[in-house]
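pasting EmrB/QacA family drug resistance transporter for the record, 490 residues
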Amino acid sequence: MPDVRLSSPQGKWILVTTVLGSSMALLDSTVVNVALPRIGQDLGADLGALQWTVNAYMVTLAGLILLGGALGDRFGRRKVFVVGVLWFAAASLLCGIAPDAGVLIAARALQGVGGALLTPGSLALIQASIHPDDRGRAVGLWSGFGGIGAAVGPFLGGWLVDGPGWRWVFLLNVPLALLCAPIALRHVPESSGVKAEGRFDVLGAALGAIALGLVTYALIEAEGDTVPAAASAVAGLAAAVAFVLVEKRRPAPMMPPAIFASRQFSAVNGVTLCVYAAFGGFFFLAALQLQVVVGWSALAAGTALLPTTALMLLLSARSGELGDRIGPRIPLTVGPLLCAAGMLLMTRVGPDASYATEVLPALLVLGLGMVTLVAPLTATVLASVDTARAGLASGINNAAARAAGLVAVAALPLLAGMGPEAYRMPDVFDAAFRRAMVLCASVLVVGSALAFTTVRRPAPDCRHPECRTHGSVAVPPLEPETAPGGERGG
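structre below
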């Protein structure tokens, strides 16, 4: 049984280590969007290359994050976590010195591999090391500090882009890793899962990542040469079908189909796909809109987006308590509608927009919608399956959220009519942005309707997440392993 008390020096070092590690991946996901216009200018990249700058990272992260958690259970959580931290730092260094968009995109894909190793490990280390009596507080502190990192991310990214340059958005990860890895090796005890037999579902992970990558390529390249895009779409769908067939036949699948026998679990993951697709599309395009159309600096654009994260950090725990009292159906119905209203309000944001009267009201409504739905969504995912599978359920839900975001970043510019050079033409981008916000709002309405018709109150003795503070609007928090010998989900 884990026996390190949080108040001890070792307990504090464990918390510092996990916060540093998770902050690397979290900061990277929140600051890169702010840097995209400057990256495009410096590297001569078109909109498709900017989409890949975001999605190359998300493809490998979403495809491999469940496998990353399993590797930690098998070979040692500290070992895999440290490998992930150093891998992420090396890939970040390559991003920072990339001479062209092609190298940057390849390095971002490598970053995603490192993220898949370190992200599940950061919370699993707390679960495996901290005494059960202190674990809830430790997870709360981990989640809270992560929220602060998410809040600082856009501001820090804007400052770096306008100051030292966009390359420091990536280079900043190197000193963080050089600080994190030695602390982990010195102060964090090694641990592994009880079960150490069986094969890893490497084939399933590979097929999942390949399917996501091919579909993403097809969506991004659809406005160019349609033959390769069509071929990629067909191959991506074939890989997705193969993934489902493999998971059905594997003795220890990465994503066991039996878990979807729970109608509520399937329905809530459907809601997750809708809301996180909208979130992914919004935050990708909003940072561009504020810089390309409104004319703000990267620092001003990053700072402008802080209200959504601040509201999440301050109010998500109370939202989770409200969801416990009244059940998840109302929050999961009302939350997406509030988010849809916020995105429709963003259609008022055009050239020379006023922050106080146009941008801030939209972000406040959007943030309140996020607060309303995110914590109950996580709790409902965990409550919809057996306790022994809560970690696995959270990992699947997390992967679904990331996959939804990357597909949205690939598809939304195509559906909104953004050409490869749209972000260089403010009038063209502004018109496409308004169409995109309407599309995002429509997807949120679909998610709200799905929640209203399918979500029911969980059983009274259902499992609730230890992560009750949500600071990141990009993905739901990961849930650690639930019990010795239980399944985990990264």
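The mean pLDDT is 86.
The two ends are 20 Å apart (CA to CA).
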